[in-house]
Write a structure and sequence with these properties.
With about 100 residues, the protein is an all-beta fold. Helix content is about 0%, strand content about 50%. A hairpin with a 4-residue loop joins strand 2 (about 20-25) and strand 3. It starts with 12 loop residues before the first strand and ends with a strand.
Length: about 100
C-alpha cells in the first residue's frame, strides 16, 4: 500500500500588529499623539473599545485628561502572515510624564 502524504503548507507567521509606540502629550491642548512603530498594514486601532482613525502610523487623541487609556492594535491577515493583537496601557498623570506599558 502506498503512503499518503499531506500537502506541506508553510506555517503561518505570527507577527505583532505593532512592535512599539511612542507618545507625546500636550497638557494645555489635552492632546495625546501616539506613534506606532512597526505597525501592520491596514492596522485597526481601538482606544477604550472605540475604533480610532490612524493616519500612517500616527493617531491623535483629543480631550485627554489624567487617567488610563487602553490601546489595542490588530490587523487582518495578509499573504500567509497572521498578525497578533498588541495592547498597551497608557497612563496620563497630572504633573508627571505619560507612562506606557504593554498588556
Amino acid at each position: 500500500a502506498g503512503m499518503r502524504t499531506a500537502a506541506l503548507t508553510p506555517p503561518a507567521v505570527r507577527n505583532p500588529a505593532a512592535r512599539g509606540r511612542s507618545t507625546r502629550y500636550d497638557r494645555r491642548a489635552r492632546r495625546l499623539v501616539v506613534t506606532l512603530r512597526g505597525a501592520a498594514p491596514r492596522a485597526v486601532v481601538e482606544v477604550n473599545g472605540r475604533r480610532v482613525i490612524v493616519r500612517g502610523s500616527t493617531l491623535v487623541l483629543r480631550g485627554i485628561g489624567p487617567g488610563q487609556i487602553v490601546l489595542r492594535v490588530s490587523a487582518p491577515a495578509t499573504a500567509g502572515v497572521v498578525f497578533g493583537r498588541a495592547a498597551f496601557r497608557i497612563t496620563v498623570r497630572a504633573g508627571a510624564p505619560v507612562r506606557v506599558g504593554r498588556l
